[in-house]
Amino acid sequence: MIKDLILLAVSFVLIAAAMEDMARLRISNIFPMLVMGLYAVWVAVAGWESGIWHNGVVFLGVFALGCGLFALRWMGGGDVKLMAACALWFDWLGAVPWFIYITVGGGLLALVIMAGRRLVPQTARANSSLAIFAAKGPIPYGVAIALGTIMALYLTGPNPSGMARLPDFVRAL
Description:
Shape: elongated
Number of helices: 8
Strand content: under 5%
Structural class: mainly alpha
Radius of gyration: 17 Å
Helix content: over 70%
Mean pLDDT: 87
Largest sheet: none
Low-confidence stretches: none
Order of helices and strands: HHHHHHHH
C-alpha cells in the first residue's frame, strides 16, 4: 500500500512537471528534487539492496549526457535535471526500456505539437498563454520524460524491489 502511494506521488509530481513545461517551457527545480526525495522514501520502504549502486551510475551517466546535450543547446536545463532525477529510479536493465519510452514518446510529442501548431488557428495561438504554440518554438521534452518515466515505473518497475504493479484501485477501473 505504501509503495503504491509513493508511485502515485511520483506520478503526480511528474505530471505537474509536464504541465509546467507545456505552459512555460520551464521545469522548476522543485520537481527533480521531489522525484529524488521520493526515491529516498522508496528505498526506505522497499529496502536497501546491494545492487543499488547501479542506479547511481545510471543517474550520473544520464546527467553527464544531459549536460552535453545542454551545452549543444539540444536540451533545456530543466529537462536535464528532471531526466537525471528520474534515472535514479532505474538500474541498468530498467534504464533501457525507460530510454525507449522517453525517446518514442518524445518523437510522438514533437509530431503532435508540430501538427497542433499548424492546425490551431493563428488567432487562437496568438491569444493563448501556452508557450507550446510559439511558431517554431522548442518542444517541451519534459512531457516525454514524465510520461516515459511513469510508463517505465509501472511496466518495468523501479529498482530496488523489481516489478511494480498498478494500484488495485486503478486496476479496478
